[in-house]
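hi! just following up on the protien thing from before. the input was this:
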Amino acid sequence: MNPQQQKQGNCDVQYKSGANEPEQYTIDVKSNFGKLNFPYQIYQVKDSIIFITVAQSV
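and the predicted 3d structure came back as:
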């Protein structure tokens, strides 16, 4: 992955369309319980999303 596409993200921030290459946002939700609301849209390029918590894919 391009190091420029590895970014620190923040809760309650909307991220818009980015590069036509993999992007990684690391977001500390500062809680080990609760609800995650993650709306997203895909357009022309196939997307995939991986959630990792406590070093495990969810």
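The chain is about 0% helix and 15% strand.
The beta strands are 6-8, 24-26, 52-53, 56-57.
cheers
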